[in-house]
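I am still learning, so can you show me any protein sequence you like together with the matching C-alpha cells, please?
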Amino acid sequence: MKADIDRLLAERGLDAIVAMGGSHDPNVSYLMNGAAIHDGVIVVQRRGIAPVLCHGPMERGEAATTGLRTRNLGEYDLRRILEEEQGDRLRARVRMLRQVFADEGVRGRVVFYGQMDQGAAYALLRALDAASSDVDVVGDYDRNLIRDARRTKSGDEVRQIRRVSAACGRVVQRVRDYLSVRRREDGIVHTEDGRPLLIGNVRRMLRAWLLEEGLEDTGTIFAQGADAGLPHSRGDDSRPVRTSQAIIFDIFPRPVGGGYHTDITRTWCIGPAPAELRATYDVVLEAYRKATSALKVGGRCADYQRLVCDLFEQAGHPTPRTHSTTHVGYVHSLGHGVGLEVHEEPRISDFPGNDDALQPGMVFSIEPGLYYPNKQIGVRLEDTWRIDSSGRPENLTASSLELEI
C-alpha cells in the first residue's frame, strides 16, 4: 500500500522517488491517484514527505482532482530553456529536472520510474546522473519498490476490484446464457438468424456488454479446441463455435480509461463433454479446490504451486517441476497478483528466490490448468481472491464452475 512507501525507501537506503510519464504507466498512475493525465507528469516523493505532482499547464484541472500538492511545469518556461540549450532536447530536459529537484529539495539516492524507450531512458538518466552532483541516480530491477508497495491493497482498492469483479461476473454469465439457448446443428452453434455463430461474434457481443458495465476489454481469450490447448491463444475469430469441444474463456477487464483489473477464467463445453475432456476438467477442478482451501496468511506462494504440481503429477500429467520445458500438461504458475496490472506481485509460483508469502491486503488469482492441443483439450479455472484484514481468504469472483452448457 502507499503507506508502505516510506518504509520501503528507508529499508533500501533511498531518499526519494521520481516517476515520469503518465496514466498509461501503472506505477505513475498509482502515485498520482489514478488521474487521467496521459503524459508529461513528474511525481516526486521524498522520504517522509507527501508526494508532489508536477504537470503541464493544460493538465492543471485534472491535477487538482488528485488531492496531491501540485506544481505547474509551465512556470519553468520550457521554450526558453530549449532555446538556451540550442534545441538540444536532452540537455533541456536535464536542466528542467534539476530545477524541479532543487525546488522540491530532492537530493541523495533517488530511484526513478516510468515507461520510456530503453535507449532514451538510458541517455536521460546517464546525463542526469553526470550533471547532478547532489543526486545519485538509482534504478531497481527485480524488486521494484512501487510494485512492492502495490502488492497489498487498501480498502478502497479492494472495493474497486470488487466492483469490477461483480460487473465482469455478470458479463460472463450473460455470455454463458446466450450460448445456452442457441440452436446446435451438425456440431456447430448458430445465431438467431440461422447462421453459424463465429468466435468473433461472441467477442463483439461481450465487448459491448463490458461497455454497458463501464468496463473495457484488455485482450479477452475465447479459444476452443486445439487453440484452448495453447494457454494464451486468443482464439480465431473466423471459426464457428462448436459443440463438444473445450472452450477457454479468460477475461480480465478494467474500467474504461484505466483502473483496477479482475481476472476470471472458465472452461466450457457446449453440449456433452467428451470423456477425456471431462476427466481433465475434474482434475483441474480438484487442484483449484485444494489450492483455494489451503489459502492462509503466511502461506508461502511457492508451496501452493508445489501442492498443485503434486496433484497433477499423481494424476500422470507433466508439470514444470518434472519437465521444466514442457509445452503440455501443467505449463505455468498457479497465479499472480491482480491490480492496476493484470499480472503483478505476488507471484504464486515456485522458482529460485521466490520468498513471497500471503499477507492481508493481497489480491491475486488462482488458476490451475492442463493443456493438450493435439487432443484439442485445454482446461483452466481462475478466480480472483484476496486476503482480508483479519487474514481470511475471500473469493471476489461469483461465477459458476460448471463445465457443460
Summary: The chain has two domains: 2-149, 151-395. The longest strand covers residues 16-21.
